[in-house]
């Protein structure tokens, strides 16, 4: 990932990975196996991201989008607002012991509000996870922004970025990938991570490299068997269960309402 500042704004260009917000220059693709297919996927992700960010417009919980940009050494990119504290998972891994319950609850509501807004505009994020939520600090306030719509879907616009959530944010029992429930299960897991500071069935910082794949297979099997961590002592445990176990929530708007009710808002 490259982050390039220009006129007080920040262009974030992902060259390889999920949720692409820029295209990899063609000269970097030369010689790669399957580069034509890979290039087509990147092109599609760029188009999807640009069109969906334009559709979403301005919202306090969505990463600000200022339009396409062309910078030296990069043929195409998207000019986005800065998120100065990185992604949510990295922030939790580094600062978990210092995050109080009030902030965790605020974050849970903020990410639910972001997903609810995308659903209201007809967009399914399809790749929701703690690395696609960004942390931004303004003064003493730490707030969350939903980002990375290159893999998202919008039936009305006939756009499909072709991504699904990574484990542990993916519901192995779901078959309708155009349903908001794709995001609702993921949202429940994101709230679980926010409130506990760790992945389901995993202690400590998020697994990396080969360990991530081993963990992913294990947690997927546990989810398929109907297992989920004990939620009796987890704040918002009933809401998390409604997303991931009972699956009683159809959209993120219902999750927002449940969170607001529990928070007395």
TrEMBL record:
Cited SUPFAM superfamilies: Protein kinase-like (PK-like)
PROSITE patterns for the chain: PROTEIN_KINASE_DOM
Span of domain Protein kinase: 10-265
Keyword Nucleotide-binding: yes
Stored InterPro entries: Kinase-like_dom_sf (IPR011009), Prot_kinase_dom (IPR000719), Ser/Thr_Kinases-Pseudokinases (IPR051681)
MF terms (GO), sorted A to Z: ATP binding; protein serine/threonine kinase activity
Keywords from the named record: ATP-binding, Kinase, Nucleotide-binding, Transferase
Metal-binding is among the record's keywords: no
Short name of any one Pfam family annotated for the protein: Pkinase
Record protein name field: Kinase-like protein
Organism: Trematosphaeria pertusa
Organism taxonomic ancestry: Eukaryota, Fungi, Dikarya, Ascomycota, Pezizomycotina
């Amino acid at each position: 990932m490259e982050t390039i500042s220009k006129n007080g704004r920040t262009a974030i260009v992902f060259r390889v990975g999920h949720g692409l917000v820029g295209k990899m220059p063609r000269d970097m693709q030369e010689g790669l196996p399957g580069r034509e297919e890979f290039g087509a996927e990147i092109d599609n992700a760029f188009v999807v991201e640009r069109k969906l960010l334009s559709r979403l417009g301005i919202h306090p919980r969505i990463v600000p989008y200022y339009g396409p940009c062309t910078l030296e050494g990069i043929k195409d990119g998207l000019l986005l607002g800065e998120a100065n504290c990185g992604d949510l998972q990295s922030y939790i891994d580094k600062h978990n012991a210092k995050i109080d319950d009030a902030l965790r609850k605020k974050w849970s509501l903020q990410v639910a509000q972001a997903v609810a807004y995308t659903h209201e505009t007809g967009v399914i994020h399809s790749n929701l996870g703690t690395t696609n939520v960004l942390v931004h600090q303004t003064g003493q306030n730490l707030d969350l922004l939903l980002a990375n719509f290159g893999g998202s879907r919008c039936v009305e616009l006939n756009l499909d970025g072709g991504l699904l959530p990574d484990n542990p944010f993916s519901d192995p029992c779901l078959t309708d990938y155009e349903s908001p429930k794709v995001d609702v299960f993921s949202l429940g897991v994101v709230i679980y991570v926010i409130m506990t500071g760790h992945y389901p069935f995993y202690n400590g910082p998020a697994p990396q490299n080969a360990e991530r794949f081993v963990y992913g297979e294990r947690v997927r099997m546990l989810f398929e068997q109907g297992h989920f961590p004990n939620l009796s002592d987890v704040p918002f445990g009933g809401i998390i269960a409604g997303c991931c176990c009972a699956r009683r929530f159809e959209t993120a708007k219902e999750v927002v309402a449940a969170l607001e009710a529990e928070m007395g808002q």
